[in-house]
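User: Before I run my own analysis I want an independent prediction to cross-check against. Here's the chain; please return only the structure tokens and, at the end, one sentence I can use as a sanity check.
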Amino acid sequence: MRAAAAPVVRAAAALLALAGLGHTLWWGVAEPGGALAFGTLVAVGELARRHPGPAPRTGTGTAPRGGAAGPPPPEDRHPAPLGSAGALAYALLGQNGGHSTHHGVLQTITVVVAAALVGIVPHVARGRGPALDHVARRVLTVAFAAVCFQPLYNSGRLGEWIGQGPYLVVFLLFLLGLTALCDSVLAAALAGARTGWPYGPLLRDELRAQLGIGSAICASGVVMALGVAVAGLWALPVFSVPLLLTQMSFHRITAVRTTYRQTITSLARATEIAGCTPPGHARRVAALSRSVGRELGLSERELTVLEYAALMHDIGQLSLVDPVPSGATAELPTALARRIAELGGEVARRTGVPAEVAVIVERQADPYRDQPVAARIVRVVNAYDDLAVGARHPAGSLAALERLRLGTGHDYEPGVVESLARVLARGGRSRVVPVPPG
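Assistant: Structure tokens:
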């Protein structure tokens, strides 16, 4: 059922775009100056959008389900806030310099689609165009806002009910809240269809993301619409330039976070370069731990901490005089496992990672009932990778999972083991293929 969400969303967006185009070609463009101004704003926003780089190699040996990446981190969910705010402002535009507008719902869709396509052409030419789902979501969310506002305003009913005072602002904010909810529902449905992950945690992450840059986009859309209603189209550059500068700063912050993640990934490879762990072990554990954490409903921030801890969980082996055979720590004596964990926690603290990461690393050897959830996840996934990579027969993955289930009485959290089993059953990792470093 979830797999059908993407085709349905794309088909609905395509039908709306075709209907808008046909209507505009038949009746012509109402108020072409306003259409051009807002279309230019949306196009500029798309031109200035940020495209996330390629996903890091996880070493799992297989691509995620359908070859698609998972949902983007919060900083990548709104790569074109200026374009989004401009599209919402056009959908909520009732007056232009004190004169009523009559562009309607279908022209709004046409202008937004045409401007978005113009803005993404340079990106497509460079091979970095946005996913089709992004465009479909933009069309549907703008259509939702326009359908809720334009007919009421153009018929005069909205003015009769609430007038033009502060109640109109409250109504617009309420409408944008509903629009943000609609966008989150669509985004979670598309991500669930792409990855097969549970819908509830995906929707929660999307809603949390709306509280950040999503709130700024909605507020900017309202301010733009109200500013143009009073001052005319000259209000657009006044309100759009600060948002464009904010977008550029936001991209810089994202770049810093990406570099930080890459630095931790490179640090985690030190155990592989030193020959302490098999090639790709840390990356496999990090990727699978993140999937299990999402299955268990961890937030995006908790997933990031979990990923960092999984990457660094074996870093303590660098301090050992005698390396652990094959780097496998799943079946080590408790004293040695605790020493590796404590050394790893100390190293993690000196790298400047969040304190939670070091805590998760140093508590790997504790009884699982005393561990935080993230530490339980890393412990289970690390043991699975150690056992599965060490297996010499085709059923090694199944045998490793069965051994984990046998150890749930003392060593491994049963709920985490079953979550791992569900992730594996969905194709989170169908085979174990170590990859060489680099």
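Sanity check: The longest strand covers residues 95-96.
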